[in-house]
Structures are given as C-alpha cells and as structure tokens.
Amino acid sequence: MMFRRLALIGTGLIGGSLALALRERGEVGEVVGYSRRLDTRLAAERLGLIDRPADSIAEAVAGADLVFVATPVKAMDAVLGELAACLPGDALVTDGGSVKGAVVERARAHLSAGQLARFVPGHPIAGRERSGPEAATADLYRGHRVILTPIEENRAEDVARIEAMWQATGARIERLEVAHHDHVLAATSHLPHAAAYAMVSALARLAERYEVFRYAAGGFRDFTRIASSDPVMWRDICLDNRDEILVMLDHYRAELDCLRDMLESADGEKIEHYFHEAKAVRDALYPVAQANGANPVSEADETGR
Ligand SMILES: NC(=O)C1=CN([C@@H]2O[C@H](COP(=O)(O)OP(=O)(O)OC[C@H]3O[C@@H](n4cnc5c(N)ncnc54)[C@H](O)[C@@H]3O)[C@@H](O)[C@H]2O)C=CC1
Ligand SMILES: O=C(O)C(=O)Cc1ccc(O)cc1
Hey, which of 14, 76, 125 would you mutate to test ligand 2's pocket, going by the most ligand atoms within 8 Å of its Cβ? Predict the structure, then answer.
C-alpha cells in the first residue's frame, strides 16, 4: 500500500476518480474528503468515493500522508493558503489543475519552503464534459497521459512517489516544464474548449436558432460536446492561462480568416487542398475510433502498434 491516508480537497470528477482508482488497486488505506459544499461531500461519501467527509481542510488533512487538490484552479489559492497552516510534516501534496504556472505561483505564495518541496504539481489529461462526484469512475485515467511539472524544490524521490501513484491508476506519466505545459495545453485543450463555447454561442444568437438546433447534425454535436463542461472550471482556466490562450485564439482566428478568403474568392482548388491537409493530420492522429476516448498515441504505444 502506497499511502495510509489520502485527503481529497475537491471531491468531484478528478479527485473522486483518483480515489476510486487507488482504492481499487489497494494503494490507499483511507480516503477523507473535503469540498466547499456539504452536498458534494455527502454525495462523494454516498457514492463511495471517500470513506468519510471532513468539515474543514484541517480536519481532512489530519493524519494524511497524501493530499490531492482537485478544485477549480482559482479556488486553489484559498486551499493552499489553508493547507499551509495545517499540513502534516510528512504529507506529500499534488494537484490535478489544468493550468500549472498560476497554481505553482499560488503554492510559492502560501507554502513554507519545506511544504513547497513536497508539492509536486500535476495534470491528468483525462476527463469529460460532465463533472461532479457522480461522474467519477475508477478507470478515468487508464490509458491516458498524466503530466507532472516538478519544480526545482522537489526531491527526486517525492516526484517518483507521485509518478508511481499515477502509474497505479493505469496512466502514462510524462514530465514537462511548467511554462511549456501551459503553452502546449493552451493549444491542445484550452483553445478547443474556447472554440466550442464560441461555436454554440454563435448559433444560439441566430434569430432562427430553434430551427438551426433542430436540424443540427452529428458534426455539431461532436464539435461542441465540450461546451457542456463546467463554466466555473473553464472561466478559471481561461483567466489563469490568459496570455497563452490569447495567442492561440489569434492563431485560430488567422486560420478562419484564411479559409474565409479562399471561400470569398471561390477558390475550390485551394479549399480542397486545405481540407485534404487537415484531414491527413487528423486521420494520422485518430486512425481508428477510440472506444473510451483515450489518447490514441498513448494507446498505440502501449499495444506496440
Ligand atoms: N473535468 C475535467 O475533465 C478535468 C478537470 N481538471 C481539473 O481538475 C480540477 C477539478 O475539476 P473537476 O473534478 O472536473 O471538477 P468538479 O466540479 O467535479 O469538482 C470540483 C470539486 O471542488 C470543490 N470546490 C470548488 N470550489 C472549492 C473551494 N473553494 N474550496 C474547496 N472545494 C471547492 C467542489 O465542491 C467539488 O468537490 C480543476 O482544476 C480542473 O481544471 C483536469 C483534467 C480534466
Ligand atoms: O472532455 C474532454 O474531452 C476533455 O478535454 C477533458 C479535459 C478537460 C480539461 C483538462 O485539463 C483535461 C481534459
């Protein structure tokens, strides 16, 4: 057993799924959960994500040797502030936030030098558009990537323990530098979410929106699935990674302008070539339908294809 007691701060999709996965593998003794809202804590207990709910962060982390912070990223400011006052000396801390630079800044602002050394930032690249405790599953991370962004204060053996913890969930672990993580994720995750929200808004603002949505095809559904994601979580991600996302939005807008120009000049050859190139890129990324939505590149690696 890797950890005696896990304290979950945030008992929703990401925290709850980690607890279920570690328990299923017998890697954790007891799971105690704190979330801001009482009903989420009680739901987490009812659903078997946690053994018992705690009424405060201090109560949750008492006696814990692992603390997992899985709240929206801006809420981590207050959470880390409270943790600084009550963290047991031997506890390791990690998180699942979608942005790393802002979270590391918050950790540096609140934690003591000793506590900071034991904070190993991380980000599972797995999730879904429905969050909350009800959405948690033991296999959420299986076959998916988890990115750790260790900071220079971390000790190698602590990073290795967090890596082993994620490995137990069936995930594949990679390490990236903090700023590089935020740059890459702005492109691969944050821009698509922003684009999906904007696409739905664009159609919703049309006078004929009812008719438009009535005849919406699978393409609209596929393109916009992630616009059902949690607005608070995505507000926080957008603000916390604002500079990188602004650059990516401009990059995407330039591409839309480019397509618009081709269409305005009715240049069929150019349009076809443009679509061919994009299709080739996507077909290479997703050669077969992915049953569980796992990253196809990682699955291909695992099966040796
Ligand atoms: N939903 C997804 O697909 C993914 C989310 N993430 C990240 O994981 C984190 C958690 O996301 P989810 O589990 O999806 O959200 P969720 O909404 O399912 O769970 C969030 C939990 O945090 C609690 N919470 C909110 N504000 C709080 C506060 N101020 N103090 C204490 N608890 C508070 C909520 O009560 C809830 O228990 C976020 O930082 C998100 O960016 C990372 C990868 C994927
Ligand atoms: O729903 C989806 O497909 C996602 O893209 C989930 C997701 C959301 C946020 C992350 O930081 C990582 C993964």
Answer: 125
Pairing mode, strands 122-124 and 119-120: unpaired
300 within domain boundaries: no
Tell whether 28 and 147 lie within a shared domain: yes
Residue nearest to atom 42 of ligand 1 (CA): 98
Is the CB of 77 within 6 Å of ligand 1? no
pLDDT in tens, 73-92: 999 999 999 999 999 999 99
Report the C-alpha gap between 102 and 241 in whole angstroms.
8
| 142 and 247 both lie in a single domain | no
Confidence of residue 294 (pLDDT cuts 50, 70, 90): low
How many domains in the chain?
A: 2
Q: Are 65 and 45 in contact (CB under 8 A)?
A: no
Residue 53 confidence (pLDDT) above 70: yes
Q: Tell me which ligand sits closest to the C-alpha of residue 72.
A: 1
User: What's the mean pLDDT in 192-204?
Assistant: 97
pTM of the shown model: 0.94
**DSSP states of 175-214 as a string?**
E--HHHHHHHHIIIIIHHHHHHHHHHHHHHTSTTHHHHHH
Q: Specify the residue with its C-alpha closest to ligand 1, atom 30.
A: 36
In-domain check, residue 301: no
Amino acid identity of residue 160, one-letter, is A
129 CA closest ligand 2 atom index: 1
Q: How far is the CA of 296 from the centre of ligand 1 (A)?
A: 25
Percent of the chain with pLDDT over 70: 94
Verify that 56 and 165 share a domain, yes or no: yes
Pocket test for ligand 2, best of 229, 236, 238, 290 (most atoms within 8 A of CB): 229
Query: Residue 26 is part of a domain; what is its CATH number?
Result: 3.40.50.720
